UniProtKB/TrEMBL annotation:
<dbReference type="GO" id="GO:0005634">
    <property type="term" value="C:nucleus"/>
</dbReference>
<dbReference type="InterPro" id="IPR001394">
    <property type="entry name" value="Peptidase_C19_UCH"/>
</dbReference>
<dbReference type="Pfam" id="PF00443">
    <property type="entry name" value="UCH"/>
</dbReference>
<keyword id="KW-0788">Thiol protease</keyword>
<dbReference type="InterPro" id="IPR038765">
    <property type="entry name" value="Papain-like_cys_pep_sf"/>
</dbReference>
<protein>
    <recommendedName>
        <fullName>ubiquitinyl hydrolase 1</fullName>
        <ecNumber>3.4.19.12</ecNumber>
    </recommendedName>
</protein>
<dbReference type="InterPro" id="IPR018200">
    <property type="entry name" value="USP_CS"/>
</dbReference>
<feature type="region of interest" description="Disordered">
    <location>
        <begin position="139"/>
        <end position="171"/>
    </location>
</feature>
<feature type="compositionally biased region" description="Basic and acidic residues">
    <location>
        <begin position="140"/>
        <end position="157"/>
    </location>
</feature>
<keyword id="KW-0378">Hydrolase</keyword>
<dbReference type="GO" id="GO:0004843">
    <property type="term" value="F:cysteine-type deubiquitinase activity"/>
</dbReference>
<dbReference type="GO" id="GO:0005829">
    <property type="term" value="C:cytosol"/>
</dbReference>
<dbReference type="GO" id="GO:0016579">
    <property type="term" value="P:protein deubiquitination"/>
</dbReference>
<feature type="domain" description="USP">
    <location>
        <begin position="3"/>
        <end position="394"/>
    </location>
</feature>
<dbReference type="GO" id="GO:0006508">
    <property type="term" value="P:proteolysis"/>
</dbReference>
<keyword id="KW-0833">Ubl conjugation pathway</keyword>
<dbReference type="InterPro" id="IPR028889">
    <property type="entry name" value="USP"/>
</dbReference>
Length: 394
């Protein structure tokens, strides 16, 4: 039996989010770890609001666990009150966005666990790979009884301080993944260093069609975009080098024309020497390291060019949160909702949208060659998906 939540006036967005999160074992464990890892004086610290949210969230999740008998619905008024102290829109009477609520909850837990989390760019974080059984999003609620989480039904229970996870060992955020972003110049072929950043959800634009799929939304997110206003670092250095060479040549001509004006000649000679030094630094940067610090050299704007940018998933999280953005921005400045129907399959294979061991720096090619899609009826294909940690159950 499952417990319901009362709608306290346009709080359906909160109820839907809590019911969804409560079905995820990894998230329940994460909330438990964040709550018990807090120091004893957390309620009186600057994190008191966040600590109260974590405690109330833990309480509600415990109540939403499967029950052995029919139970009455719960009123999450205390959690809403705690959330209202952090984000006042949560406590308002107007209808709100579930994704914004998720961001509030995620950032709150992230702040609380910041001191206990493992470094984001540690080798363990980058190399960790979990089997499909622990990385998929469960389609059904856990069948474990409420006894396993009885202690969580009271936010101030004695269990809240027993057997805490040792601080410093790191708390694994199940939402945390990593994306890779590459920007490359079509004109000169230069590719800046591939940058990595962490995410706890991916916001996908829903295409303006009648019917689409999550895979098509992900394909749009990871597509190679054309940039017309990006200034390539290598092209910028090349333009600056051309200007410095031209200025240095002009100084030589001016210096040769100066006869009988030794003071002016010395000034031009010093300026010419400075330009030659800048020329050497620019040539070195152009051939070896375009990202090198060029100090006080004034950079020139390069001629208009085209660059491309692409983002792909570099490390998949245990729980993949996708936000389908349906906002349409009209030429008049207003907005409308995209009514496209998004079809959901039982499984989501993200391997075509994730990086592999083959990295490309070409502006016209993907960061990585797409992996072979998973064959749901092939044990070998499923085993490879398990190794890549790229298959999720919707």
């Amino acid at each position: 039996h499952l417990r319901g939540l009362y709608n306290l006036g346009n709080t359906c967005f909160l109820n839907a989010t809590l019911q969804s999160l409560s079905s995820l074992d990894a998230f329940n464990g994460y909330v438990d770890s964040c709550a018990v890892a807090l120091p004893d004086d957390a309620r009186g610290s600057v994190h008191s609001v966040d600590a109260a949210i974590a405690a109330q969230l833990r309480h509600v999740l415990g109540l939403l666990a499967p029950q052995p008998r029919p139970v009455a619905a719960h009123s999450p008024r205390a959690l809403i009150s705690s959330l209202g102290k952090k984000s006042r829109w949560v406590a308002s009477r107007s209808e709100q966005d579930a994704q914004e609520l998720f961001q509030v909850l995620s950032s709150t837990l992230q702040t609380l666990c910041r001191d206990t989390e493992a470094p984001l760019f540690s080798l363990d974080f980058l190399a960790s790979s979990r089997p499909i059984e622990t990385s998929v999003v469960p389609a059904r609620r856990r069948e474990s009884s409420c006894k396993a989480r009885d202690a969580r039904c009271e936010p101030d229970s004695a269990h809240a301080t027993s057997s805490p996870e040792p601080r410093g060992q790191g708390i694994d955020n199940p939402f945390l993944g990593m994306a890779a972003s590459r920007t490359a110049c079509v004109k000169c072929g230069y590719t800046a260093a591939i940058r990595h950043f962490t995410f706890d959800n991916l916001s996908l634009t829903v295409p303006r069609v009648q019917n689409t799929t999550v895979e098509e939304c992900l394909a749009l997110y990871t597509a190679i975009d054309r940039l017309d206003d990006f200034k390539c670092r290598r092209c910028t250095i090349a333009a600056t080098l051309a200007r410095v060479k031209s200025d240095a040549a002009q100084r030589k001509v001016d210096l040769a024309a100066l006869e009988g004006r030794p003071k002016r000649a010395r000034q031009l000679a010093a300026a010419a020497e400075t330009l030659l030094e800048q020329q050497r630094r620019l040539e070195n940067a152009l051939t070896s390291d375009p990202e090198a610090d060029l100090g006080d050299i004034r950079l020139s704007a390069p001629p208009p060019g085209i660059s491309t940018r692409q983002t792909m998933v570099a490390r998949t999280p245990r729980i993949l949160v996708l936000h389908l953005s349906r906002s349409i921005y009209l030429p008049t400045g207003g907005t409308a909702k995209n009514p496209a129907r998004v079809r959901l399959q039982r499984f989501l294979d993200v391997s075509p949208f994730a990086t592999t061991g083959h990295i490309s720096t070409s502006a016209s090619k993907p960061i990585s060659r797409p992996a072979i899609p998973v064959d749901m009826y092939s044990p070998e294909s499923l085993a490879k998906a398990r190794d890549r940690n790229c298959l999720y159950r919707l």
